[in-house]
Amino acid sequence: MARALSGKNRKLRRILVCLRRGKPGAVEVAMVLKSIFRQAGVAATWVSESGLARARHANIDAVVIGGGDGTMLHAAQATIGWGIPLLGINLGSLGFLTSIKAGELRRVLPAILEGRYGVSARTVLSARLSGSDRTWSALNEVSVSPSGGQLMVRVRVKVGEEVLTEYHADGLLVASPTGSTAYSLSAGGPLVSPRARAMVLTPVCAHAMAQRPVVVGEQEGVELSLSEGEPGGVVRLDGKKVGRLTRGKHLRVSVGRPVVRLMHPEGFGFYGLARQKLGWSGAAGVTR
Q1: How far apart are CA 210 and CA 51, in angstroms?
Q2: Using CA atoms, how far apart are residues 16 and 56, in angstroms rounded to an integer?
Q3: d(CA 243, CA 128)
Q4: Residue 148's pLDDT is what?
Q5: Burial 88-100 (b: 16+ CB within 10 A, else e)
Q6: 77 Cβ partners below 8 Å, 6+ apart?
Q7: For the residues of 154-207, what is the DSSP string, one character each?
Q8: Is 233 within 8 Å of 146 (Cβ atoms)?
Q9: What is the three-class DSSP state of 288?
Q10: What tens digit of pLDDT does each residue of 95-138 get?
């Protein structure tokens, strides 16, 4: 479950910065950030994406990430367990995980550095294949897709101890509330507030119209297995291939203990971001 924290927080004086290399506008953003940090007396350490997980995070107040949602997902994976909030600067297109546009930095960032910001604690999904001791973590979703050469996959789903259904689709997603704005949304799933205690089962291009997305309780847990005759499925976490689901095995997905803390400007959270990104109220450029 996400908790939105706002109001007067501690000032940010030690920042870890990671910008997506080669992204249009990244050099200009770096120059603006250096100027703002210098004026605010902030000590910034700059790291690459590949070096983020190895970076020293002791005595760091926040991690500033510049890129799109893919960069934010990488940063979330690299910093899980740190307990340090992430502030995203959007250098991409939609950017549901990035709360600041590059052009807003000079107006918005100084207030954030002075402690005027909100923090949303996002739940992380935990996934484990039967017979394995390894547990994976995902911020957005866990997915099962067809193996090479296959067009569709049949996945049997249990929620808690009860069989729900067998999805026949191009793939099946188990999305967190945060992931409801990502692949799940593109596949026809619902928007879910990050404060909701839920996971979303979303089939990708389901074979039957009756097979719809289902919202399940956070505490129930989901078990995925292949239907009879299926040769295998590919398991991905946040779009990255991590393993295979084979006959006789099952994939257990639940809500993990770590959380990812996302920062946003004061008074501007999930619904304001959804309004802006989706162009609700008839205007894609609607202001805060």
Answers
A1: 46
A2: 9
A3: 10
A4: 80
A5: bbbbbeebbbbbb
A6: 53, 137, 139, 238
A7: EEEEEETTEEEEEEEESEEEEE-TGGGGTHHHHTTPPP--TTS-EEEEEEES-S
A8: yes
A9: coil
A10: 789 889 999 999 999 999 999 999 999 999 999 999 888 999 99
Would you call 69 a catalytic residue per the annotation? Answer: yes
For the chain, residues with pLDDT lower than 70 are 1-8, 282-288
**pLDDT tens digits along 25-50:** 899 999 999 999 999 999 999 999 99
Catalytic residue among 69, 133, 170, 238: 69
> Which domains, and CATH codes, for the chain?
4-122+258-282 (3.40.50.10330), 124-257 (2.60.200.30)
List 9's β-bridge partners, or say none: none
Q: Which of 202, 186, 32 is nearest to 107 (CA)?
A: 32
Six-digit token string for 207: 């074979």
Write b or e for each residue in 164-183: b if 16 or more Cβ atoms lie within 10 A of its Cβ, otherwise e: ebebbbbbbbbbbbbbbbbb
Contact in structure between 248 and 268 (CB atoms under 8 Å): no
